Amino acid sequence: MKKILLILLLSLFVAGCSGEDLHYIDPVDTTAGGNVTDSEVAEWIPIPGGVTADGLSGMNGRFIETKNAFVFCDNRGTVRTAYISKATGTVSPLCDDPLCSHPDDGVDDMCAVVGNLFTFSTLCYSPDSGRLYFVRPYRLFGMGNDMFLVLYSVDIDKMDLTVKEHHRFAVGVRLETMQYSDGKLYFTYCDMDDEGNEILKLDAYDIKSDKVENITFFEDAGTYFTVIGDSIYYSDKSLYALNRYGITDGKTEELIPGKPRQQYIVTEDKIYLRDTTSVLVIDTATGDRSELAVYEENTYSRAAATADGDVYYTLPYLSQIGDFKGGKLYVCGNGESRVYYDFGDDAYINMISAYGDNVFVEVEINDKMQFARLTEAGDKVACYFFPTL
After folding, report:
1. Which pTM was predicted?
2. Is the backbone of residue 4 left (phi > 0), alpha (psi -120 to 50) or beta?
């Protein structure tokens, strides 16, 4: 079963944009993309049910793939948690009670639709149980440093959105990110070692036994990780090396030496490496390397990969006034590299996530943040923007 790093998704309206593109836009903003001249209602291209190999990663970013839907936190205003039906494209809040007031201040009386920074960074899905997990913060007395986090879940596969509480973390534990693997939720949080230095601890919460155990710790608080089987693959934001930690044997080994701005996408048999001038794929069994794309030096690019070996990436740049620009999304794989979709020079693609034949992006167009799903429709690419909740 492949595991991968990732991120995003959608809306439902179409306009002819630039020849070869089908451009689906929200009619409230008919200037999206810069060239939209008309719009009409468009049919949603259904996404097959089930979870792709890409959706089984713990680093899913803003959009989380489940059996029948994609779940995301919309932070364009009040943060709200919602899901998009794969079959119909309908966007719905993560609450099925029309009379609910969506309370956000009670530990026991809470609603899954209310989101925040912790919800965004901890959303994860278990294909084994069909449940969606997330945490929410509360304060004991409403002031000071008395915040604690509570772990909840809903049965997203059965669309039973009744919130179930699982665990209350100790006061002061602030989860950075969380992912599911084999009955456990792995999460990181900042702490201090015996000498008073800040470290990033990695713990695992066993859902069945309701017990938390420490796995290891990282010296850099900016470390990100992926769990694959018995291994933790991790890289920090200071050295950029890729390391593997064995959960059972406790041994650490460096797989790829550090180089500034390197980004890794790890699967069971391959490592995709994006640096400032190229995208490489490395066979973990043989160590063989192949170049998928080469470009002029760019320190701001982002990338996402699919289990089929396609890598999507951006090459943004800093404008004269100091903001990021660059709306081209590239794809490389199978010996070629090309522009997959172009949002325009004034746009900026902030995040990418790829799930099978669907690519999801967070893109800023005309100073307005949009979330979109891109998918091939014959010899064209359809782009769906989705509305703010």
Report:
1. 0.82
2. beta
